[in-house]
Design brief:
The chain is an alpha+beta fold. 39% of the residues lie in helices and 24% in strands.
Length: 196
């Protein structure tokens, strides 16, 4: 009796959960790629497996170039033995933060701050590192130290007694002329004293 009737067959499958998972994965990948800091995935042999757009921008290499390189190509002076020691220590500590130097495509060396975590996925261990170019911070620090030293040189070479105090009249510092007149061997000896 089935030969005489027409049938329509429809298969309905709920895909909203799969769609939500795909959207979540896209958002995760987008967040990785567009993060404001460099993100690296590195294996136990120092091979660069994945980087985000910030790493590409900082170093000037394409994503494809970077993913065909190793950290030994990026960190000046890093060799196999040093990497093995770094990796073995990293397996113990599992997280670390430090400053390093990275080499750009044009050969320039830039100071970076690195924060790394050990991740394991399906039995394979990876180093996930977050890097920030700290060139500006270093330059600002050097400029500040230079300015302080210049001010110190001026204060120590003018033939006038100079001192400075806080709002409670506690000495915060003085120049060499003032320290000598006060019977001190070094200006730092005045810090924390009062006139009382």
């Amino acid at each position: 009796w089935l030969d005489e009737k027409e049938f329509q067959v429809a298969f309905v499958r709920e895909i909203s959960e799969r769609k939500a998972s795909e959207e979540s994965l896209k958002l995760t990948q987008f967040s990785f790629n567009e993060a404001a800091v460099g993100i690296w995935r590195i294996d136990s042999d120092a091979r660069i497996l994945d980087v985000n757009n910030k790493v590409v921008e900082m170093l000037g290499f394409s994503k494809e170039e970077l993913e065909s390189m190793s950290m030994k190509d990026i960190v000046p002076g890093l060799d196999d033995e040093q990497w093995r020691t770094i990796w073995d220590n990293f397996l113990e500590v599992k997280q670390e933060s430090f400053e390093s130097v990275h080499r750009t495509k044009d050969g320039k060396q830039i100071p970076v701050e690195i924060s790394s975590s050990l991740l394991e996925y399906e039995g394979v261990k990876y180093r996930i590192s977050f890097s920030t170019d700290i060139s500006e911070r270093k330059k600002t620090r050097q400029d500040l130290l230079f300015s302080r030293q210049m001010l110190r040189d001026i204060l120590d070479n003018i033939p006038v007694r100079v001192f400075w105090k806080d709002t409670n009249s506690v000495y915060l510092g003085c120049n060499d002329v003032f320290a000598r007149n006060a019977g001190l061997k070094h200006p730092a000896e005045i810090i924390g004293r009062t006139d009382y």
